[in-house]
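Notes to self, Glutamate synthase subunit beta:
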Amino acid sequence: MADPKGFMTTPRQDWPRRPVEERVGDWDEVYVPGALLPIISKQADRCMDCGIPFCHDACPLGNLIPEWNDLVSREDWRAAADRLHATNNFPEFTGRLCPAPCEAGCVLAINQPAVTIKNVECAIGDRAWEEGFAPPRPPDRLSGRTVAVIGSGPTGLAAAQQLTRAGHTVAVYEKDDRIGGLMRYGIPEFKMEKHHLERRIEQMRAEGTKFRTSTAVGRDIGAAELRSRYDAVVIATGATAWRELSVPGRELSGIQQAMEYLPLANRVCEGDLESSPMSAAGKHVVIVGGGDTGADCLGTAVREGAASVTQLDIYAQPGAERDDDAEPWPTYPKIYRLSAAHEEARDLETAPAADADARLFAASTLRFTGDADGNVRSLHLVEVDAQRRPMPDTGRTLPADLVLLALGFSGPDRTDGLIEQLGLEMQPRGTITRDAGFATNVPGVFAAGDAARGQSLIVWAIAEGRAVAAAVDHHLTGSSRLPAPISPFDRPMAV
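result:
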């Protein structure tokens, strides 16, 4: 604890964002380059040395947060990077993409703004690359065992890296043409520039991990055939089966799923396309769904030059402060948060009829109507109460040339045939069944991440990848020294 009074004398200061007018004109990350390091040591000083760090339990990775806060406050970046990488394979990802449940569990957050844990984590991750503190770590010797990992999102990459470093020969199979899963094509460039992903992939290649892109297991290669080639298989395909909105007019042209829309914008940034065939340019856009994916669509539509953008959230607008009775510390509270995309929409007034920024809260879609050519032109909605029951005389119509459905995901996509070909047992909610050791009903086949847990956060995905790697290593060798931060049945802290 470098400064015993830091939490009393130093106010919270977050990584500043670039001006709205500047950042919506490009696809670069929203934060001011280089503005984090000058403030981060003092911010790390705010860590209280609280004795029982609830931030550990709030983070499924078990990150050693007070330890690396202390090291950063002393500007010992090498030691901080070592402690951070001891529990997290990809801190530069989580430092940008995680909603930071650790900060909700910060003891200081009981009555003050929490320590900027996420910013400190990001600073350590970036500094590690700049100073060469993240070299490849190939194994000293090979085990002679082989593992196939299906899916290259955070779960698949974490599992692959852990197993490769344990000495196994690992091949990662990805159905898309590039590695990264939703981090590649689902996360907009303004939230995480893809060079962060590329350098981790190169690190993994140097360690010995093999990558097989444009290969959908179950379609391009039979699932049973793949199982016969390897000593173990890890299914980490994510939960990409999107939820539908079954209301009149859904068949109209111009109503798209968010994960049909976002990948095209990412492909423009990758240089694959000159412009997106679903571009929001000049269109009135309505996003149905109030979560992070909806916010990603919002920021993307603003950058594409939409005429207007409105986001519908079926829940009532949350308050600015934690409800101590309903969501007591250290649980993650549902409060009003202003993401970078919402800040942009607010300042640019993209949705004049919205309750706040671009959002209409407690809003439920009733139907769509279109023109004579079958194109969507309007979305009809109604306000709802806390039980989602329509309230009388609250109907409203919004112009809509493009509607984006961001309603979440129910489980793994089954169109490739992977699940049926292997004969995997499934849960009623659409996820893969597994036991306490991450094993499915098929010998040698393990399931991890959103495909088995259900839609979750990036920190849970990485924790699942690390834990399933330990289970596979034990299956192959009879024991394992790999860390297993969670069990398949652990859940976030809740009331």
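- The chain has 19 helices and 13 strands.
- The chain has a mean pLDDT of 96.
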